Amino acid sequence: MTAVLRRVVVGVLETNCWILHAHGDRRALIVDPGDEPGRVLAAVEDLDVVAVLLTHAHFDHVLAVPNIAAALGVPILAHPADAPVWPHEIATARRMGHWDAGTATADLLACDPALLAFRPDASLWDGTFTPIRDGEVLRLGPLPVRVLHTPGHTPGGLTLAVDGHLLTGDTLFPNGPGLTGPPLSDFEVIIRSVRRLLRFPGTTHIHPGHGPDTTVAAERPHLGEWIARGW
Fold it and tell me: 144: which of 26, 152, 163, 165 lies 20 to 30 Å off by Cα?
């Protein structure tokens, strides 16, 4: 059964929110609704969403969660090891007065402080989710979706493997692994996760949490370079 992927780019960090379903079947999964819930909901009007899955719980991947969950009445799926991440995001934002966008923070604040402004009166996710673990298989009608625990960017990072595609969140991008400078991240751990992903066939398409797609074949030769540079 052929997988169909829709991309909705949302929020200040241009997060890829993915909508996944089988060709000819309405049952769908929303992955990483990072912001702009109206646009995400409009993109699934012709589908029957069964769940929202979070590859990880950084702010730019979850801001639309409460609106989506309220509108659709579906469960939020995440790995239990990511439970500390959202509370840490909230605590950091309250202390600093803005969201932490990693290496992009300084430039975004210099451009317009409102881009990352933390609004404590906004509708924020309460952090409640249904645990999902490595090796579990979600079924979107006839389409099996395998869950892979790929930690490093966060402790509970997830990748979805489906029909020759990997939805890698912020674990693997064109030109390397995701950021591992902030708390709750670990470079050696993410490299182990990347090694696992690069064992998939070369033709496997990689769909990251930000930016363009790539393939396993395009990225596999560069693993040694990434390890040597340390990020």
Answer: 152
What's the pTM value of the predicted model, to 2 decimals?
A: 0.97
CA dist 46 and 27 (Å) reads 10
Do residues 191 and 152 touch, judged by C-beta distance below 8 A? yes
> What's the number of domains the chain is made of?
1
Residue 119 tokens read as 């609004």
Q: Please report where in the chains the tokens 């797609």 appear, as a residue.
A: 213
Domain ranges, residue 127: 3-229
Assess contact for 177 and 159: CB atoms under 8 A.
Answer: no
**CB-based burial of residue 220 (10 Å sphere; 0-12 exposed, 13-18 middle, 19+ buried)?**
middle
Cβ neighbours of 124 (radius 10 Å)? 18
**DSSP assignment of 172-230, as one string?**
EETTEEPP--STT--HHHHHHHHHHHTTS-TT-EEEESBS--EEHHHHGGGHHHHHHHT
Among residues 52, 51, 49, 47, the alpha carbon closest in space to that of 33 is found at: 52
- Distance between CA atoms of residues 154 and 43, nearest Å: 28
Residues 50-91: tens digit of each pLDDT: 999 999 999 999 999 999 999 999 999 999 999 999 999 999
What's the pLDDT tens digit per position in 165-223?
999 999 999 999 999 988 999 999 999 999 999 999 999 999 999 999 999 999 999 99
**The domain that contains 54 carries what CATH number?**
3.60.15.10
